[in-house]
## 1
Amino acid sequence: MAHLLSTHCTMKLSINAKVYTNLPNHHPKALFTSLPVHTYKHPSKSLVFHKRKDPKHHVFYATAVPMSKEAETQIASGSHQSSSGPSKPKRVMIIGGDGYCGWATALHLSNRNYEVCIVDSLVRRLFDHQLGLDSLTPIASIHDRIRRWKSLTGKTIQLHIGDICDFEFLSEAFKSFEPDSVVHFGEQRSAPYSMIDRSRAVFTQHNNVIGTLNVLFAIKEYQEECHLVKLGTMGEYGTPNIDIEEGYITITHNGRTDTLPYPKQASSFYHLSKVHDSHNIAFTCKAWGIRATDLNQGVVYGVRTDEMEMHEELCNRFDYDGVFGTALNRFCVQAAVGHPLTIYGKGGQTRGYLDIRDTVQCVELAIANPAKHGEFRVFNQFTEQFSVNDLSRLVTKAGKKLGLEVQTISVPNPRVEAEEHYYNAKHTKLVELGLQPHLLSDSLLDSLLNFAITYKDRVDKAQIMPSVSWKKIGAKPQTVTA
Ligand SMILES: NC(=O)c1ccc[n+]([C@@H]2O[C@H](COP(=O)([O-])OP(=O)(O)OC[C@H]3O[C@@H](n4cnc5c(N)ncnc54)[C@H](O)[C@@H]3O)[C@@H](O)[C@H]2O)c1
C-alpha cells in the first residue's frame, strides 16, 4: 500500500491576507484557482513552481496573487530563519495534521500564534476510499481548509504532503521548516484496521514504526534541539489488575528496587506498533539525548473546537463506522439514527476518555513545557474513565431528553479483550502542568447528540456494525464490506 504514496511534494500556500480577511464568507474556489499537481484534481491555477536541484523533490508555492518580496526571498533560499530568538514564534511541525486530532491541533496552535506546518500523506482519506467509508461531517480538502483558515485569520499554515516513511521527503520538510517541536499524530490509528488481514497488519506496523523511526533520525540529523511530542495510546498498557502509572513503575523484586517502564500488554497489531514506537523513542532519548514526550492518549470524543466554529470549511472529520469510529462518537450517531447502541460483549470494558478540546490543550501544554535533553517523559492523556455500559447509559439518558428512543444490544465481541476488569489509571501530570478538563457533562452530551442529529442523513447504517474479527484475521487480503 505504501507504494501508492511514494511520490511527494511540498506546498506552501501563499495568500495575500489583505484581500481575503475582508472576504470571510467567500468560497475559496471563487477566490483561488488550483494547483497543477497530479494528485489533486483542480482546474488551472496561477502557480509559482520552483524546482530544486534534487529532481525528486519539488517545492510548490501556489498563489492567487503576486507573492511578496519576502516570500520570494524565502523561496530562493529554500529555508526559513531559525526561531532561536526569544521574540520569534515557536515552530511546530504537525505530522498527521489532516487527521482528526491533528487538524484540531494545527488550528489551535496556529490561533495561539505558533508557526505551524502540517506534514501528511493523506493516507487516512485513502483508507475511506478503500473501505467505502466516509466521515459523518463533510470535510474540505486540506488545501481548502488551509486557504479558508488563512482567509479568516490571516495566518499561514505550511503544508508538506508526503509519507514520513520516505526519509528523503521527511528530511526536506525538516530542513526547510526547522521545527522547535514535532507533534507526531501521523500513524494508522485503528485497531480494527490493523486486524483486517495480513497486509493491513504489516502496513500498520511498517507505517507506524518506520515513520516514527524516521522522525527520530530526522531530529538527530537536522534538529537536535527539537522536542518530540508523540501520540501514544492508553491501550499500550492493556487492562492489568493493578493501578496503571504514568509511564513508569517502581518495583521491588528479590530485595532490589528499580523504576522501570510500566509493563505493556497491547491487544492488536496497531497497539503493538505504538508499544514498539515507545521503546524506540525511549532508546533514542538514552542513546542520542533526544527530548521526548509520549502522550498516552485515551479515547477522544467530540468534534468541535473554538477554531472550527469559525467556518464550516474548517470542520473536522467525525468517524462513526465499525473500523475507525470511537465508542462515544459511535453511540451518539447510533442514537441519532435509531440504531441500537452496539455493546461489545458484557460492556464492562473500561478506558480513559477525553474531549478533543482537551487533546489540543494537552499538546500545547507539552510543547510549552518541553522534556529535557535525554528525557523520555510519559503522560497519560485522558480526563475521565468510563465503561462501555456507562457510556450507553449516559447516551440513553441524554437521548430521552431529546425525545429519542435509545435501545442497546449486546453484540458478539469482535475483539479479544477482558469484558469485566479492574481499571484505575493515573493521569495527574498534565493537570499539574495546567490542564483544565472539559468533563463529559449533560450539556456536552446534548450538543454531541444534536450534532449527530444534524448530520444523520449522511449516515450509512451498513457501516455501523463491527466487521473485523480479531480471531478471523488471515493472510488472505480481505475486502471489508458492510
Ligand atoms: N482518535 C483517538 O481516539 C485516539 C486515541 C488514542 C491515541 N490516538 C493517537 O493519536 C494520533 C492521531 O489520531 P487521529 O484519530 O487523529 O487519527 P487520524 O487517522 O484521523 O489522523 C492521522 C493522520 O496521519 C496521517 N498519516 C498516517 N500515516 C502517515 C505517514 N506515514 N506519513 C504522513 N502522514 C501519515 C493520516 O493521513 C491522517 O491524516 C494517532 O497516532 C493515534 O494513535 C488517537
Note: The first helix runs from residue 17 to 20.
## 2
Amino acid sequence: MPQRHFSLGFLLLCACSSPWPDPPPSQTVDTAPKTAAPLNVCINEFSANPTASTDWIELHNPTSSGLSLAGYFLTDDADDPYKYPLDTSLFVDAGGYLLLTADGRADLGPAHLPFSLNADGETLGLFRFDGAGEQLTFGVVASDYTWSRQPDCCQDLPDCLSQTLDGTPESTNGGRR
Ligand SMILES: [Ca+2]
Ligand SMILES: [Ca+2]
C-alpha cells in the first residue's frame, strides 16, 4: 500500500529533524513595583539631581543580621537586571545604611558606581544573583531633592516614595505622618 509507506516516511522525517531551536530565554523583566520584600536590603533613597555633590544611592538593611552584597547587582536598565555587579567587599550592617556614589567612577573604589542617575527619571533596580530583587521607576526630581522611601524600605511603591530636600544620606528617612 503505497499510501501507508508514504505516511510512515513522513512521520519519521518529522521525528528526526527538528529545525526549530529552543526559544531564547525571555528578556522581559517585571517592571511593576514589588509589594513583598524579596531581599533583606533595599534601595532606600537616592539623589539624582544634586547641585553640590555627585549622585548617590543609599541602601538599607532593615534586618537584624549583617548582609554581604557579594552576588548583588544594581541596574538602570529594565531589560538587564544584572548590569552592574556590586563589589564583593560591600557589606550592610544590621539595621545599617550604605552610601554608594553614583559618579561613573568605579575606578575610585568599591563604593563608587559605574553609572549616574538621570534627574529626569528612570528605572533603578537591585537584584540578587538568583533573580530576586526589586525595581522602581522614578520621575523628574527637583535640584537637591532626593527620592526616599518613608518609612525605610517601605514596600507600597511608588506611593511611599517622597521627595525630600537634601535627603538623609546614611541615616533613616524617617516615617511619614
Ligand atoms: Ca544625575
Ligand atoms: Ca536616608
Note: The chain has one domain: 28-165.
## 3
Amino acid sequence: MNKLTPQQDQRFENKLGTIFVTNHQKELAKQHLADELKQAEDPMEDIPYFAIGNRELAQKKPAGTHATCPKCGKKHKIKYGTGKDGTESTSLGFVDCKGKSYLVVINGKEL
Ligand SMILES: [Zn+2]
C-alpha cells in the first residue's frame, strides 16, 4: 500500500480545495493517487484531474455509466468507490485501462 509524502498530501489537499468529499472518499483518492504516482513515478503536476474548482465542476456533464478514458480516448465503464457501510459512492469514479485506473468522476460529474 503506497502513501503520499507529506508534501504530496498537502498539495492534494490544496488541489482538492473546497470540493466536498467524505474523509473515506478522500482516503480512497489519496490511496489511488499514491498508487498512480508509484506506478508512473511522475510528479504531481502530471496528474491534472484534481486541478478543478467547484464552479468548473458544476459546468461538467453528469456522469453516465461509461466515461471517456483519459489514456486511450475510448469509453470505459465507470467503477465507483464503496463507502464503509458497503454502499457505492458516486463521489469518485474511476475507469480501468491497460492495467491502470484513472479518476474520471468527482461528485457525479465527468471530468
Ligand atoms: Zn482506455
Note: Residues 6-110 form one domain.
## 4
Amino acid sequence: MIAKPLSSKKNAKSQGATLPGPGDFPIGSVQSRAAARLRLQRVGAGGEPAFDCFCFPEDERPSFGFLIEVEIASEVLCPVHNNEFTPLFHLYIAKRFREQLWNDLWTHHSEQYRKAWFARFPPELWPAVEEETECGSIFLKLKDGSRLLAYEPAWRDSYTEIERNRFVLSD
Ligand SMILES: [Zn+2]
C-alpha cells in the first residue's frame, strides 16, 4: 500500500482554520474562562450556568482609553451581583497612557480587577491596535480584524458642550 500524502496535508489545513474555543486553553486559565464567556455572550443564552463574580473591586475603579471601551465594558454585568460600575474618567489621556492601561493590569491591579477586565476585553480580541486616519479619526482594530470607531475629531466639540466629563483625547 502507498500512503496518501494529500490526506495529511488536508488535516493540517483544517486544523489551522479552527477558531480558539474554551478547550484550546488550559482549564481554569483566564483565556479559557474568557473564551467560554465570550461564547455564551454570543449565544445570548438565558439561564446559563453561574459564573464567578467579575465586578471591578470597589477601591479600584476602572480606567479606559476611549468612551467606546466604557460602553463595551458597561454591557457586561457581573452574573452574580449584576452590578454596574462607575468608571474613572480622565480629563486628558494621551496615547502612551492608553497603552499603559494594559501594562498596568499586571503591575498596578488586583487579580479581581484583571478578572473583571478580561471578562469584558477577552485576550482573543484585545488589546486593539489603534489606527488613525488622515482626518484624525481613530479606529480600534481587534485581533479578529474587526474595527471600531473610537474617536472622531468632531466629537471633541460636543464633549466640550456637554461639559460633564470634558473627554478630550490628544497627544
Ligand atoms: Zn460581582
Note: The CA atoms of residues 13 and 119 lie 31 Å apart.
